[in-house]
Design brief:
Shape: elongated
Largest sheet: none
Strand content: under 5%
Number of helices: 4
CATH topology: Cytochrome Bc1 Complex, Chain D, domain 2
Structural class: mainly alpha
Radius of gyration: 20 Å
Oligomer: single chain
């Protein structure tokens, strides 16, 4: 076999392997497309927040799985962290709580509100109930319920 056909076969094999491996790690949004109130904010979260935050409902894994390998840019894991609308909206508008890593106003207007409500609704889905004497009110932060927000991140849903 001459050199050119060998090179073409080698390049085709490498391309096939790389495309196959690239598709292995992709996770999908778990919220149904027919759920119009949750699917759009899930898409926005995946587009703007996936690089730093882990959130099962959107199929993202941006947080560190091991504290020893954590990087400065790793955001909170929303599977195990309860949140309320006000706190999420504050973080979106102000670049998190430290303002050091997360860009401020990563979402604005109605998109910011939709994502804040979505995160508050599903955040903490793997955390269970908060122990007595912990949470936002214990830290001096009052979260109020937003109409339709009865997920684990609202005062009425276990915060």
């Amino acid at each position: 076999m001459t050199r050119l056909p060998k090179l073409i076969i080698l390049i085709a094999a490498a391309l096939t392997i790389s495309v196959t491996l690239a598709a292995c790690g992709e996770q999908k949004i778990e919220v149904s497309k027919s759920d119009t109130s949750d699917y759009r904010p899930a898409e926005l979260f995946k587009q703007r927040c996936a690089g730093c935050h882990t959130f099962k409902q959107v199929g993202t894994r941006g947080s560190a799985a091991n504290i020893r390998t954590r990087e400065r840019t790793d955001g909170p894991n929303f599977n195990v962290r309860h949140e309320c609308v006000e706190r999420v909206l504050y973080a979106i508008q102000n670049g998190g709580f430290s303002g050091a890593v997360m860009p401020g106003n990563i979402l604005v207007g109605e998109d910011a509100k939709l994502v804040a409500q979505f995160v508050a609704k599903y955040a903490g889905s793997e955390a269970g109930e908060r122990p007595e004497g912990t949470g936002d009110s214990s830290n001096g932060y009052s979260c109020t319920s937003v109409e339709g927000d009865t997920g684990p991140g609202s005062d009425t849903g276990g915060d």
